[in-house]
């Protein structure tokens, strides 16, 4: 039986995910995201809105909805299912209810149009309800409700997604994820 006198060498510590992250300022992330969006057909205002939404998610620690969404957004642009320059349209259904047609633009752009319309209606009628159709992923829902909260308004935001999960006992994807977010102004 042969033996070795060599001592086993320690293996280098594996890089963990945290050590591979590149830390940038929020301003630099905003600038980068806007440049990517504009470079892929988004007008400056759309690029600013979407980038703000993505950076806000990163700052809040919701990395799944942050700047790392850019590649999936750009893939949707290239596939023709997201129209980066489309402007949402608002149809007033009743004095306190409206519908935004996102025209397949960025969800943050359509969502922001909806929140602004809802806030405007709520100032006059005490409530404003807006639905959005023909849109895309709108990012972190907390960003949208914060926009209403900044105006002193309570906000409820709900969404759905494409089928991703089977129903209980099902064999195919039939249900989408449902996200909701609620915020209310309070006293200080």
TrEMBL record:
Keyword Oxidoreductase: yes
InterPro entries: Mal/L-sulf/L-lact_DH-like_ah, Mal/L-sulf/L-lact_DH-like_NADP, Mal/L-sulfo/L-lacto_DH-like_sf, Malate/L-lactate_DH-like
Protein name: Malate/L-lactate dehydrogenase
Superkingdom in the source lineage: Eukaryota
Keyword Oxidoreductase: yes
Pfam families in UniProt: Ldh_2 (PF02615)
Similarity comment: Belongs to the LDH2/MDH2 oxidoreductase family.
Provenance organism: Apiospora saccharicola
Stretches that traverse the bilayer: none
Keyword terms: Oxidoreductase
């Amino acid at each position: 039986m042969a033996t070795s006198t060599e001592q086993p060498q320690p293996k280098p510590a594996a890089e963990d995910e945290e050590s591979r992250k590149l830390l940038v300022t929020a301003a630099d992330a905003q600038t980068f995201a806007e440049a990517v969006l504009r470079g892929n057909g988004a007008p400056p205002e759309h690029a600013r809105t979407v980038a703000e939404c993505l950076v806000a998610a990163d700052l809040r620690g919701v990395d799944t909805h942050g700047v790392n969404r850019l590649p999936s957004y750009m893939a949707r642009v290239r596939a023709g299912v997201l129209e980066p320059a489309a402007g949402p349209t608002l149809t007033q259904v009743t004095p306190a209810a409206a519908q935004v047609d996102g025209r397949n633009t960025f969800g943050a752009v359509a969502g922001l149009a909806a929140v602004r319309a809802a806030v405007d209606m709520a100032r006059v009628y005490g409530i404003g309800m807006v639905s959005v159709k023909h849109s895309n992923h709108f990012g972190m829902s907390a960003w949208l409700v914060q926009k209403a909260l900044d105006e002193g308004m309570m906000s409820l935001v709900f969404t759905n997604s494409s089928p991703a999960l089977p129903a209980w006992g099902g064999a195919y994807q039939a249900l989408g994820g449902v996200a909701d977010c609620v915020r209310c102004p309070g006293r200080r």
